[in-house]
Amino acid sequence: MKNWCLIILIALGVIIGSPLFAEDSSAETKKLYESAVLLYGEKKYELARTVFQQILLHHPQSDLADNALYWKGISYYDERKYELALKELEKLLKDYPQGNKAEDARSTIKKIKKIQGALPPPEKKGLRELIRELERELSDKKYLRIP
Questions:
Q1: Torsion of CA 68, 25, 51, 69, to 10 degrees
Q2: CATH code at position 104
Q3: Nearest CA to 30 among 69, 64, 68?
Q4: pTM for the full predicted model
Q5: Is residue 104 included in any domain, yes or no?
Q6: CA dihedral in degrees (113, 84, 78, 110; nearest 10)?
Q7: CB 71 within 8 A of CB 36
Q8: Is residue 146 part of a domain?
Q9: What percent of the chain has pLDDT over 70?
Q10: Contact (Cβ atoms closer than 8 angstroms) between residue 36 and residue 48
Q11: Domain of residue 16, residue span
Q12: pLDDT tens by residue, 76-124
């Protein structure tokens, strides 16, 4: 598995270093984008993000740039890395406000904020309070007694 990942990264390095990639080649950008989408579909999120990032670095004006940024954010969302997903999706709205993925990004941002709002903040309790809570829960079973 690791060898396969290494091969992809080496191939990606060769493609990026080639003169064809240095030019604003929409055909090459499309190939990279399709490769990244396939990796995403296979849940190889980290590799997919690497390819999406290369599109963003080398072809920020491409018609696929906002899509690359969107799927980069969605890959974080799928991994439940909500803060990273928010960062990418908000960047999409800033950099590509009229892009074809802007509305999808807004929708996903709302979902993330709803998820984050649904998670209550962790209660800060002292150790003694936690032990007393545990003692109350287990008191009928006589598992734990604290003097």
A1: -20
A2: 1.25.40.10
A3: 64
A4: 0.66
A5: yes
A6: 20
A7: yes
A8: no
A9: 72
A10: yes
A11: 2-141
A12: 999 999 999 999 999 999 999 999 999 999 999 999 999 988 656 666 7
**Would you list the DSSP string of the chain?**
-HHHHHHHHHHHHHHHHSHHHHS--HHHHHHHHHHHHHHHHTT-HHHHHHHHHHHHHH-TTSTTHHHHHHHHHHHHHHTT-HHHHHHHHHHHHHH-TTSTTHHHHHHHHHHHHHHHHHSPPPP---HHHHHHHHHHHHGGGTS----
Is residue 147 situated within a structural domain?
no
CB 58 within 8 A of CB 96: no
**Tokens standing for residue 31:** 């190939």
Total domains present in the chain: 1
Is 100 in contact with 64 (CB distance < 8 Å)? Answer: no
